[in-house]
């Protein structure tokens, strides 16, 4: 089994194809109180598909149902839902199973996409508005920002994280990451106002040939650091070796092979949270300090 390598789907950091904070647009968004604010960001490709974000949605519902329920009128923002509102509609549906009172607002920096989404709105539970990283002045408990920063320069990540988390409720969280076109391979970072907490890897195990395939869909903060000597490369290389060693479990199916892979890392001393139900779904959550580029 070859070591984990980078599969860069994008140009290297600093490439002019990536917008930096200095290049963000200055469109106008309206807050809940009617005050106008600057919509921060640029219009990106906007491609999406039904069920593309099902893995992160189900993870959000499983982990943060109680957090949402602690609020009288919990608000979740879906930032950058794209050319179709379908994944925002799905997010509201999935979160409502654990918190019926949840409100979801989809934000897009492209006014045309906001207009296209209006027929799918169901106020007050589901709305679509114009906005960017400033979150249109909203104060959400959770923010989902998938496949957004992937299209920005790496230098924009810290500023975007700080801008979004500054708008959260005191106990709020940002979930930012990326996935493939069909949602079979996904990664995301959970970020609090004090910084990133965890990295989650999620896959459809029946189509996962080796764990280093996650390298293709790492969050922007990590994708250019998947090189020897960096923590994320070490993680993916270790997963590949454990996956290869667990090959005999394949006769029982990919789920058993993955469970054996995770148990191998734990046996080697990796401080992985004990979440066997999530492992069975093809997920693995890692404390951020283990993969941080600055570690």
What's this model, at a glance?
The protein is α/β, with parallel strands linked by helices and 295 residues long.
The largest sheet is: 8 strands, mixed
Could you estimate the helical fraction of the residues in percent? Answer: 25-40%
Rg, rounded, reads 19 Å
Strand content: 15-25%
Give the overall shape.
globular
Topology as a string of helices (H) and strands (E): EEHEHEHEEHEEEHHHHE
Query: Which class do the helix and strand fractions yield?
Result: alpha/beta
Number of domains: 2
How many distinct beta strands? 10
Structure description:
The protein has 295 residues and is of the alpha/beta class. It has two domains: 21-193, 3-Layer(aba) Sandwich (Rossmann fold), CATH 3.40.50; 204-290, no CATH class. Helix content is 27%, strand content 20%. It contains eight helices and ten strands. The protein has helices at residues 54-69, 86-96, 111-117, 157-165, 220-223, 231-245, 254-267, 276-279, and strands spanning 27-30, 36-39, 75-79, 103-108, 126-130, 142-146, 173-179, 185-192, 195-203, 283-287. The strands form two sheets. Strands 5-4-3-6-7-8-9-10 form an eight-stranded mixed β-sheet, sandwiched between helices. A two-stranded antiparallel ribbon has the order 1-2. Helix 1 packs across helix 2. The two termini are 27 Å apart.
